Structure formats: structure tokens, C-alpha cells
Predict the structure.
Amino acid sequence: MKLDDTDLCLLAELQRDAAAPLATLAVRCRVSAPTVLRRIRRLEQAGLIEHRVAILHPQRLAAAVGEGLQAIVELTLERQGAEFLQAFEALAVADPAVQQCYRVSAGPDFVLVVAVRTMAEYQALAQRLFTAHDNVRTVKAYFCVHRAKFDTRLPLPSTAAAAGESGATAGQR
């Protein structure tokens, strides 16, 4: 799929605020609201827009509900053949406490980002994902005490429309 300046502008704006009204997106990307809707649907159908969600702040949520724990976990397997890597990956991504799962190289085999409500829930997660499986060799968990930055936006090519510098009006697209 080829992306033009309007597509890139919409992707950039939706990464900033997926709840922005169509009219606002139309002004920012200098197209009409029906064009915005049509383009967003096309981007979703193409799989470029995977989800549109609300992102909760973990520390503020923990303060509001009285608990919350996030950890970054490095994990190395004993046997690293493709079937063993795929088996652990399938297990990890199926667990609701695992928010992100990365297969990495030049270090551990996997890096997981996990979120649970309590230390007891983390221990249950560790039991079902790490301790109960004989192929897990090492686990290092780093518990988050402060989040200085969190951003879900992916870098996009810079374009005139995405930067809001295009001279085109909504009627010209």
C-alpha cells in the first residue's frame, strides 16, 4: 500500500489523539471530513491502524485503585531452537498479564513487559510462565518505580501535509 501525504498526516494525528473528531482531523490534514473517514477506514482495512484505544497511566491508576505493578522481564531459554522459541512466545502472548513480548538477540531471548495488580499476582505469573517450564534458564525482573517517558507513536516520514505546511485546502483533495 502506498501512503500519500494525507495518509501520513492522518496517521501522525491519530497517534497523537485517536479520539480527535473527524472535523479536527480534516482541518489539521487539510482535507474534508468525509475524506478523513474514508482514509481512516482504508488504513484500518489495510492493517496499518491496528487498534484505537485509551492509554491508561499506570501510576495514576495504581493511586486511584490502590495497587498496580509493572515489570520488565528478561528471559533466556535453555534450548533455543525455533520450536522452543515459538512455544514460549505462544505461552507468553496468551497470558493477559503480558502487555508486550519481544524476541531479542545479543542478550536474553525474550523481553516482556508485564502488568499485574499485586506482587502475589506477579508471583503467580512467574510460576505459570517461568518456574513451571523446564526450558526457562534465567529470569531477571526489573520492577518499575517511576515512568519518565512512555510513547506509543511510531516515526513517520516527514511530509508537507503531515507537518501542516501544505498550501492545499480541503476542497483541493
